[in-house]
Amino acid sequence: MGLEEKRMARDIREQLLPETRTKLKELAGFDIGLEINLDEILQAPNAYDALRMLYHYQLASLVSCFESICRGQFEQDLVQQAIDTIHIQHQAGYQGEAIKYNGKQLELTWDFSETYVDPVTLETQIGKGL
């Protein structure tokens, strides 16, 4: 783990995560917990690529997905009934993406450095659980 990885993780933790939480709250109409274990990512063999993708694409993709889902009060109510926490997990070498519900926790797992999860895929998979 080098200085660049540490800087990106700090920027994600201190800047990007709070901004993303604020955007999700505005879209969904309530506080959605957003959890990412950045320390786990820093230990991954592909930490730089994973952090870079998370920073530049993956969180924006999540916000874009919620922009599409939460179009009105009805949709916001559905989201609030189904989700209270989003847990995003990087898993080096993971093929594809896993999007599943564990109670009211939405669990998203993929290899950030290898897979770009686009908003349409997220919207389709998350929508199945609403």
Structure notes:
The protein has 130 residues and is of the alpha/beta class. It contains five helices and four strands. It has a four-stranded mixed beta sheet with strand order 1-2-4-3. It is globular, with a radius of gyration of 14 Å.
Average pLDDT value?
87
- Fraction in helix: 55-70%
% residues in beta strands? 15-25%
N-end to C-end Cα span: 39 Å
- Which descriptor suits the 3D outline? globular
Beta-strand segment tally: 4
Topology:
Layout: H1 3-28, E1 33-36, H2 38-43, H3 47-69, H4 73-82, E2 85-90, E3 97-102, E4 105-110, H5 119-128
Parallel strand pairs: 1-2, 2-4
Antiparallel strand pairs: 3-4
Helix pairs in contact: 1-3, 3-5
Characteristics of this structure?
single chain; 130 residues; alpha/beta; four-stranded mixed β-sheet; 5 helices
Structure summary:
The protein has five helices and four strands.
